[in-house]
Amino acid sequence: ITGWPGGKPDADDTYRPERAKPFPKRCLVLSPEPQDAVVGMGGTLDRLTEQGHDVVLAALTSGSLRVPDSEADKFASTLAELGGLSSNTEDWKEQTDYAREMLRILEEKGEFGEDPPVLRQLKGLVLRGEFRDAAHALRLTSEKVRFLDLPFYERGRYRRFHAAEEDIAAVVDLLNKVRPHQIYCTGDAADPSSVAGISYGILLAALKQCSAEDWASTCSLWSYRGREKALEAHEIDMAVPMSPQQLETKARALTRFGSLSSLEQHAPERNRAHAAEYDALGLAEYEAIEAFQRLSRR
User: Fold this and answer.
1) How far apart are CA 1 and CA 278, in angstroms?
2) What CATH code is carried by the domain that includes residue 214?
3) Does a structural domain hold residue 179?
4) What does the CA dihedral 223, 170, 193, 258 come to, rounded to 10 degrees?
5) Residue 270 pLDDT more than 70?
6) Is residue 201 assigned to a domain?
7) Distance (Å, rounded) from C-alpha 298 to C-alpha 220?
8) pLDDT tens, 30-79?
9) Based on the structure, what is the number of domains in the chain?
10) Three-state DSSP state, 90
11) How far is CA 140 from CA 29, 58, 131, 212, in A?
C-alpha cells in the first residue's frame, strides 16, 4: 500500500513498490478508449499530478464507436441553432451546412445503420472534449493530453479490429517523445480482440522496438484494470489508497463522459470493494483503493 505511486522522494524504497529516484518522474498513462484510464486509475492520475510528476495522458483510439447518436445530434443541433442566431448568417454558412449535413446523415442512417467516416469523426471530437474535461478535473492541463487515433480503430468495428505496423509506429513515436520512467496501461487481461486487448498488444510490440533506447531499461510497466475482472488481492503489487475527497474527485471526472457503461459508472464502488477487502485482511482501513499489477522492472 502506498500513497506515492510515482515513488516517495528521499525515502528508503527497499520495500516500496516503486523506486524513489528519479523524482519527479515522467509518467505515461495509456487509455485504449478515452474513458478507460479515468475509470481504472483516475485517483492515481490525480495523485501523480499533485505530487509533481510529469504526467502525459494518451487516448490511443478516438472511442467514436461508443458515442451514441444522441450526443452527435445534440452537438450538430446546437451548431445549427447558433448559426441561425448569428446576425451575419453568411459568416456561419460553412458551419451551418456542416451541422445540417450531420443531422441529415443521422436521420438517414437510423438507429442501426453504420456510421460513415464523417460522423465517426464528429463523435470522436465529442469524446475528445469529454476526455479533456475529465483530465482537467484530475489536475491535468490540455497540453498533457494526447490523442493518437490509432488507425486500427478508425478502419474497423468492434470484434473486427486488426492492428498494423502503422499503429505500432505511432506508439513508438509517442514513447520516444515522452521517454517515460513509468507506463500505466491496461488490456493484459482483456479479450485479445477487444480494443484494450489489441492496444496492449500494440504497446508490447512498440516496447520491443524501443528496447535499445536508454529510457527503456529503467521504465516500469504497471497494469490497471478497466472493464476486465478486478485484480485479486494476491495479484496486487501496488495499492493506491483514496480518501473520500479523492474518490469524489474521481467520480466528478467520470461525470464528464456522456457515454459510460453501467460498469464504468460504478468504478468508485469497485474501488471501495478493494478497500473493504484490505480491511477484512486486517490491513489499514481506507475509503477506496486503486489496484495495480507490475508487468516489468522496478
Assistant:
1) 10
2) 3.40.50.10320
3) yes
4) 70
5) yes
6) yes
7) 6
8) 999 999 999 999 999 999 999 999 999 999 999 999 999 999 999 999 99
9) 1
10) helix
11) 12, 12, 11, 30
Give the residue carrying C-alpha cell 512498440.
206
Domain of 261, in residue numbers = 26-67+128-294
**Mean pLDDT within 256-265:** 85
257 contacts: CB under 8 Å, gap ≥ 6: 34, 35, 38, 127, 130, 131, 134, 264
Q: Nine-digit cell at 86? A: 448569428
Residue type, 42: G
- For 33, 56, 140, the CA distances from 146, given in Å and listed in that order, are 12, 7, 11
Q: Is the pTM of this model over 0.85?
A: yes
pLDDT digit string, tens, across residues 77-101: 999 888 777 767 777 888 889 999 9
166 within some domain: yes
User: Is residue 91 situated within a structural domain?
Assistant: no
